[in-house]
Amino acid sequence: MMNTAIRLTGITKRFPGVVALKNVGFEIHSGEVHCLVGENGAGKSTLIKLLAGVEQPDEGTIELFEKQVCFRSPEEALRAGVGVVYQELSNFVHLDVATNLNANDFPQKGGVIDYHGLYRRTREQLDDCGLKYIHEKSIMRELSLGTQQMVEIASLIGQKARVVILDEPTSALTEVEVEKLYELIARMKQQGVTIIYISHRLDEVLHLADTITVLKDGEHVITFPRDETTTKQMLVRFMVGRDVEFDYRTSQTVQKDVLLAVDDISSGEALKNISFSLQKGEILGIAGLEGSGRTELLETLFGWRIATAGTIRLEGKPVRIHNPIQAKKHGLAYITKDRKMLGLFLKQDVKTNVAAASEQSYKSAGLVSYQKIAANAKHYVEAMRIKCASLSQLVMNLSGGNQQKVLLSMWLSADPKILLIDEPTRGVDVGAKAEIHALLRGIAAEGKGVLMVSSELPEIMAACDRVIVMFEGRITGILDNNKQLTEERLVSLASGMTEVC
Ligand SMILES: Nc1ncnc2c1ncn2[C@@H]1O[C@H](COP(=O)(O)OP(=O)(O)OP(=O)(O)O)[C@@H](O)[C@H]1O
Ligand SMILES: [Mg+2]
């Protein structure tokens, strides 16, 4: 008999206007990797918040190693051995690794912090976790998101967490970082740590899980052990209640006219001699590893970064774009990958956010029409199946994936000619992913252009007509999806191996 690490019985959690969890009950075995899956808004993060003491259940009980618990705060949960790495990281970005790792327990000597001891201890902790490549004195902000995440996990291990919860840990990681994370998970498992893992990447769930639990609309659907017979399709059916088409090679919306022509632009060290064109009706992907210049390319086109050489033409006319306001005037829209920092007004409601990038179109005779704002928001909420209690719900209270959909709606409302988009479906569930791809295709079909960065190969393969592959600030290849695009080709170009295409 396996021991039970966590037993949930009859858990119900209500928020104003929604029941986030309804009478949920299941068990998590000690020492297993237990994956939690479900559509955006299914209640996964809410469940985690209850386990971690961030919120308390309205009904039901939680047992931790056969003892009933009710955590009033995250600190209390951590003292009992439950630690979480959240969807959005929560470390002290201006401080160094050592401080972050030991924030709850600095070594002291004679009443003052013993820095020598702190750095020595940190080195040991990092080595123990197989993180030799992380320097104890690095400032968090200067590390990649993936490395910051490793530090957070190492910190939980250092605090002897017996249950480690990861809420969509890989959604912002590069492939190399994902491998590192898997190693760390295997290491924790060996040490008997119980791991709860939330992800929308079903391949990853099939790879990691011992047991899988599916939630749907706040209800428990099923908990079952993963084995060789478990398939992605099965999971999707449990999650969505229907089949979702994954592989739809691209359609015939690409026209002959060039919409955007980029000729030999460079930007400092980040971009070197970039040339390509975007046709009307085309979805052009940009692939490459983190640091390859993918995001910098979008930033330069949108005027956030200065192009130090080269020319940009829009429909044949040379343009100068020095700032985002000029970019917007030329019909460009940019959806960043960092929705919290750069995209959304979290303390505003859904309809205000959807309207935020296109205020002008709601005015008549100088007055803003709130009816128009609401009607437009309603359209997108229905089209993208945004799960919200009402159009007046604050965006900060939406689930992660639903926030992403609001951000998309905001920029689609602005009716751009060229849409620059970074990681369009990060954190979005399988069903909605397919819907967003269809929406992007719909935009292209109107004769517009989409330039899309994605670190998910399946997404690039499914959604794009052509793909630009970048490495160290240069383009190493441009592949046509219908002729030349294979996973192997893409990966080799992304790691700097050039070939003639
Ligand atoms: N503080 C809050 N106030 C109001 N509603 C909330 C709050 N927190 C969550 N909700 C609602 O509870 C439901 C479940 O949200 P939750 O964040 O648990 O979903 P999720 O399964 O993690 O989704 P995702 O995959 O998008 O991250 C959603 O409808 C969400 O809008
Ligand atoms: Mg969530």
What can you see in these coordinates?
The protein folds into three domains: 4-240, 3-Layer(aba) Sandwich (Rossmann fold); 245-331 and 416-501, Rossmann fold (3-Layer(aba) Sandwich), CATH 3.40.50; 345-415, no CATH class. The protein is globular and about 70 Å long. With 501 residues, it is an alpha/beta fold. It starts with a strand and ends in a 7-residue tail after the last helix. Helices cover 33% and strands 27% of the residues. A six-stranded mixed sheet has the order 6-9-10-3-11-12, sandwiched between helices. Strands 18-21-22-15-23-24 form a six-stranded mixed sheet, with helices on both faces. The chain has 17 helices and 24 strands. Adenosine-5'-triphosphate (ATP) is lined by residues 15-16, 18, 20, 38, 40-46, 387, 397-402, 429.
Notable traits:
501 residues; alpha/beta; Rossmann fold; 3 domains; six-stranded mixed beta sheet; globular; binds adenosine-5'-triphosphate; binds magnesium ion
Q: What is the name of the CATH architecture of the largest domain?
A: 3-Layer(aba) Sandwich
The CATH superfamily label of the largest domain reads P-loop containing nucleotide triphosphate hydrolases
CATH topology of the largest domain: Rossmann fold
Helices, by number, come to: 17
| Residue share in helix | 25-40%
Largest sheet: 6 strands, mixed
